[in-house]
Amino acid sequence: MKNKVLPFSIIIIFGIIFFIFYKSLKDSKIYTPDVNKRKDIPKFNTKEFFSGENMESSSIFELDKIYLLNIWSSWCVPCRQEHSFLMNLNKDNKVIIIGMNYKDNLKSGKNFLKELGNPYKEIFIDSEGTIAIDWGAYGVPESFLIYNNEIIKKYIGPLNQQSIDEINLLIK
Amino acid sequence: MKVFRFFLILILFLPLKLNAEENDKRNKITKNLRCLICQGQSVYDSDSEFANSLKIVVDKKLEEGLSEDQIYEYFKNKYGEWILYDPVLNKNTYILWILPLLIFLAGGAIIYKNFIVKK
Predict the structure, then answer these.
(1) Tens digits of per-residue pLDDT, B60-75?
(2) Can you name the CATH fold of B23-88?
(3) CB contact under 8 A, A138 and B99
(4) Which of A21, A72, A133 to mutate to test the interface with B (most CBs of B within 10 A)?
(5) Is the ipTM of this structure higher than 0.90?
(6) Whether the model pTM is above 0.90
């Protein structure tokens, strides 16, 4: 009897190990950020882009309104691509677009808006990139759809027609 | 005079020592944070925009007096557990932590049964 228990338990242990490794091998190893997780928006102090005046996040985002926070920078090439989509979205007037100017030179930032247009109702500065970290952002461009001080959806990378359609569907 | 000199040296070098400790702590934390937009690099190793901002945030949090665990918790909240190199014990990782221990115990039991009891 004793002799039978040992091989039997070894087989079971190896079976379990095999199952675990097999299962882990099947899992996707590609890191995919969670874009649908609802989160409260962070509180922060910052400066206004044009005037340089101090401002608080609570004065930007009001309850019961839909906002799209867009992180942009004049040195970011994909930001140029998505800018026309933001301009079109602004024309519809369904969503208030707020800009976060990320680690940018103010003069080039202003030139960028002069050249391509300004779809933003308000723009604030994130010169160190720390506010973006507080939002859980990875870099530029990135957009957050916000309702009732809650992040509803996050778009990593430039917006395209597909994401604009999705936003229009979400805010209906 | 000697005592005075001793204190003078102590006063001059104490901030350096404290600064070094703070730096060690910051390095330790940033080494355990994964740079999410880089390939196989920690925040400490990377010079990307993302990693540089993260380093500033770590400095700010340390200045605010947050502990190492609190800082990890903050980043975990923002980016998920993937940002930590050192996984914490939870329902997804318990096998990772317990399996080596189980194998060690099972191996020990086999050795004990076969070699020590037989003698």
Answers:
(1) 999 999 999 999 999 9
(2) Helicase, Ruva Protein; domain 3 (1.10.8)
(3) no
(4) A133
(5) no
(6) no
